[in-house]
Amino acid sequence: MMLRSLSADFLKIRGKGIWLLIFLAPLGVVGIEALNFGLRFDYLVGKQYADNLWDGLIKETSVFVPISLYLGCTLVSSLIANVEHQLSSWKQLLALPISRTAVFSAKFTLCVLLLAVSCIVLSIGTIILGMSLGFGTAMPWKDLLTMGYFPFLASLPVLSLQLWLSLSFQNQTFPVSLGVLISLVSPFFMQLSEWFPLNWPLMAFHSEHQLWFIGFGIGVGIIIMLIGLVHFNRKDVD
């Protein structure tokens, strides 16, 4: 039942600009790093990261990953929820022989899959950038492939919260504003404990205790998702 709903949701997002966002967001991060290395090439390549160019590129790129993930979670959740809100189709959708649990789970799964694709694009884009800068083929594949996925798993609480709020409010001003605020203030919380929730995505990639932050991200994300699911099952629809 959930798979049928997921298949329907994939059809609904066609022509909504969501796929464009999925590709443009990670390419934007890569573009920032291309500009960064282009403007400071002699310093970054010749001095700061001369001993390990690939690690330097990954380190510089990973700083922007949490911010882009928070924005991605916000915009993808809002756009997916807005498909139903704009058409005022909740009553028709929930009148079908499909449970609310399946509807909510399908939309959460869709968000996860879309953002997973975005993480792949980020890794591929970073590889292309490094090759273009002449860093060679001796690249740290593990770090390149996990640069997006480890932080993404640690950011699942934000995704669960944003989807819950986006499905609950027909007017998307509050969910989007909250998500943008989280994205903007997240760098300033790096001065706090690494266990502060907004620091989990960065720590999931850079910390020695990566699995702890990934585990907490998945666990808290599931808890928030289940709370949102219970609320969605009990909520009246317009």
TrEMBL record:
Keywords: Membrane, Transmembrane, Transmembrane helix
Protein transport listed as a keyword: no
Stretches that traverse the bilayer: 20-41, 61-83, 104-129, 149-167, 174-192, 212-232
CDD domains linked: ABC-2_lan_permease-like
Pfam families: ABC2_membrane_4 (PF12730)
Keyword set includes Membrane: yes
Protein's name according to its UniProt entry: Permease
Natural source organism: Paenibacillus aceti
